[in-house]
Amino acid sequence: MAPALCTLGMLAGDVYAALPTLVSNPLSIAVPDGGAIADPEVIKFRGTYYLYGTMGPSGIRVWSSRNLVNWQDRGIAATAANAWYGWAPDVLYHNGQFYMVTSGDTGSYSDHVVMRSDSPLGPFVRIADTLPNSIDGNMFQDDDGKLYFFWAAAGGVRYRPMTAPNTLDTGQPERQLTACVVNIINNWTEAPMVWKRNGTYYLSYTGNDWTRDDYQVHVCKGATLSGMVPQANKVITLDTVGTWRGAGHSTMVVGPDLTNVYNVYHERQYGGTHRNLGLSEAWIASDGQLRADSPENGVNIPAQPLFRDDFERDAIGAGWQQFGNAPWGTWNRELLWHDSRGYSGWNLQVTSSQVSPPDYVYEGSAKQWEWGPLTTSLYPKYGLVSSVAKDAAGNVTSAFFYGVDARNNLLVSWALVNGVDQGWQNTAMPAGWNHNAWHALRIEKRGNTFKLFYDDMLKQTRSVALGGGGFGAGADNTHVDFSSLAMNHNVNGWYRITPRNAPDKAVEAGGWSTVDGGNVIQWSFGSNQANQLWWAQPRGGTGGVSFANKHSGKMLDVAGYSPYSGANVHQWNDVRGTNQTWLPGAAGGAWWNFRPNHAQDQCLDVSSGSPNNGANVQQWQCNGGTPQHFSLAPY
Description:
By secondary structure, the chain is mainly beta. The radius of gyration is 25 Å and the shape is globular. Helices cover 1% and strands 51% of the residues. The protein is built from 1 helix and 52 strands. The longest helix is centred in the first third of the chain and has 4 residues, at 80-83. Strands 1, 26, 28, 29, 31, 36, 37, 38 and 40 form a 9-stranded antiparallel sheet that branches. The chain has a 7-stranded antiparallel sheet with strand order 27-30-39-32-33-34-35, with no helix packed on it.
């Protein structure tokens, strides 16, 4: 059987990415029993998304999806007997178990109940009903593993630390974020949801009355939870026109391409009370504010990553290379297993031809069964490997490893650069941590900086001088399973773009132009020169990114959507055009190439490969030449 690999076109010259496909809001999702999808919650587990909403006639339903648009009904996750009123389910995966909080209001009394399950599909069984006298609870787990509970309130969102997913910390004070309030017809504020990105906390919240057309989502942000205040453009979701209105109850989720962010919410049918699921692209802008598209704009079906393998086959097959003698295999067409108990030394399963670009996101889930015999020469560990490079003889000379030392209850990272050991970095986990459950590992590489996540918690940051390369899984003296390995480019934030043939120069908006049509050229470096800095932002549904010039605010653009070689590249106002979306690809080592989405046989190119100031930037038939190679220096 042929291996079921997802490999998309930015890494191979003869394969192209699909053009974006727009769908309207709300999404078309069949709901049994005449029910609705209200107060949505979406989580991701082992590469699959799970959707929950306020309880219908039969209980709280769950749907699953691989792309956030096409959803499959998976039945009842929690019965009415367990879920009480079943309003606004919120689900947290914590140390191997799923916890669901729901709420309700009898008219004289409101409360939350907590349920628990071993599966995102349920059944969820009630274990507590002691959380605050309110509704719309949200559990948040910070990078240090500490838990917090947020809930709806008049006068602003309230929160308190937790000692466990079913217990508030009564030794800690309850806080109210009085600035985080929606004040339209009153100050009732509901549907809090906390999301953390690049060290900043973002709190979305909704108000005031879900039956009104102007029901809307606001955002607070801050460097600490207690310091969150409304961002300058605080309203991120508002829909008062059309057949569907009153968008609210928002949650943020990272898309299947591992980089784009999406805003999930419900909308109400105009003139009635029926609600259904909405989805819009969201992003962190260059000013640090969380933004989202209008529901009226619809959404492009989210792109898939450059690489994904769910091992839905009977054998590992082509596309992978084994290092070491311990056995590997697939099981039940759903995972990759490995057993090196009693074997000494590294055992790797690495992509044989697929390589990552210089900056990438790589993630997967892992679950240990048992470590092998403990001796001084055997050191049980397992995890992800990336940036793998080999010499002419096929020996690994460079690599990065991030994973788990379950025996010592540690998260560990290690690197090898041109044969030189870079040492281990260890992070302790809480006592009694369950390593025999599935946990998500994620590597975000940008420049020489590696950010290492565990179940969405940032656990390590380290600097290692590595480029792109092969990637896969690694283990030593342990029996372990891996699931849903995926990789994508990680082009996001401020960059200086440097042509390979002119390493002392940068791509710039020529002459400090601020107008549409201003020419783009190469010129000698300036010191943090604004017209040489570009803000890269992923574009949902395209697999690519846009580049906005810091000085002018305008986009890197192929003039007139031309599909031909020699077409000029200039700057233009942001129209979300396919000629403003660039597909990043690996060009070897630290080098990238960039294809315009509208003409994917073309590449960003410096005319004639000139090393001189003023050389024009254009598009040209992709040929692998150095005039089409660029480096990205993060700022």
